[in-house]
Amino acid sequence: MKKTSSLRIKLSCGIVAVLSTVLFGNIGFAQRSTTKAQQKTNDPFGQSLQPVPIQQYRPSLSNPARSNSRYIGHLFEHTISQKLQKLRQELKNAKSNEQKEEVEKSVREALLEYFNKDMKHREAELEKLMLRSSKMSAALEKRAAAKEQLVDLQLKSFKYEMDGLGLFTKQGLTSQWKSATRAYPTYTIVNSFDSEGLYLEAAKPKVDPLKTAMDTVNTMLQKLRSEKSDEGRTKATSELRKALSNYFDLDLKARQKEIDKINAGLKKMQTGLQKRADAKDNIVDLQLQIIVNEAKGLGFFRSSALNSAQHGIDLRLPALDNLGRSKKDTFFLRRNILR
User: Fold this and answer.
1) Which residues fall in a coiled-coil region (predicted)?
2) Angle at 175 between CA 172 and CA 177, to 5 degrees
3) Distance between CA atoms of 292 and 299, rounded to whole angstroms?
4) Residues 205-225: pLDDT tens digits?
5) Cβ contact 239:220 at 8 Å
């Protein structure tokens, strides 16, 4: 009985194995055949999947305004770095003074190329910022010219909301509806270490004229809501309009102050850019002397004495911008827009 059962099990396993080989083997063959057929056909749906090359970002050096606004471009700086590394090696291997002078001339040309393209980028960046500043000034003038219209519109909006006619006013809420623009005072809990015992006290908030004006608007708005008589509502409406007008003026001054700060920063950038252009030869000559010294083994930093090609980045191209930059910032020239 046991022999019969084991025989049946062996036969079943054999049949399953044969069927698996036939079925799945044919399926695999069909898949391989289909793949080969797909590779030969011109049908786009029958082509085999091939890796698609990723298009690398290439900044427009002919038009710096189209380039990334934060740095000249990784590819250009990498090319200059490789070129200078090669020239640096040639400078080290030069035997005669004539060869050294020829290599130094090539190094200077490469540095001038870098400087000129960098200047174009900086000028385009400054021009872009100045254009934005002029647009902000124009928008502020437009806002100032529409003062009466904006104040009347906001006053009318408040009155509609109090009468339950606001677009987003919920059902049943009329004069009790609270404005979403209400400003609340904030307090900061601070530690006082200048006394014998450590204790907490509420810090007095700084007086902000714009916030004070907003509080006045809220007060007048609450007063208008509480008035029942027509005479009282008319008077409260007049006071609310004055409060809105005062808030608008202060807000306009705050916006103008921000624009003035931006313009001051742009003026500083213009001065720095002109100073940089005037010192072009000195900047390039300084960098050239640094590279020549490094080729002689007289680099100031320890990393500048390394000869491996992987340390070509240690030529410290950003020295054109700032000698104090770290190695991390070599490829990416990080600038503060408004220093």
Assistant:
1) 77-156
2) 70
3) 9
4) 677 888 899 999 999 998 988
5) yes
CA distance 182 to 188: 20
Q: Residue 190's beta-bridge partner residues? A: 201
* Dihedral angle sign, alpha carbons of residues 60, 65, 68, 73: positive
Selection from 59, 67, 58 nearest residue 123 by Cα:
67
**Whether the Cβ atoms of residue 92 and residue 295 lie closer than 8 Å to each other:** yes
Give yes or no for a contact between 331 and 78, defined as CB atoms under 8 angstroms apart: yes
Residue range 251-287, pLDDT digits in tens: 999 999 999 999 999 999 999 999 999 999 999 999 9
- Could you tell me the pTM of the whole model? 0.52
Those residues with Cβ within 8 angstroms of residue 14's Cβ, 6 or more apart along the chain or in another chain: none
pLDDT in tens, 308-330: 333 433 334 443 334 343 444 43
Choose among 280, 312, 243: nearest CA to 111: 280
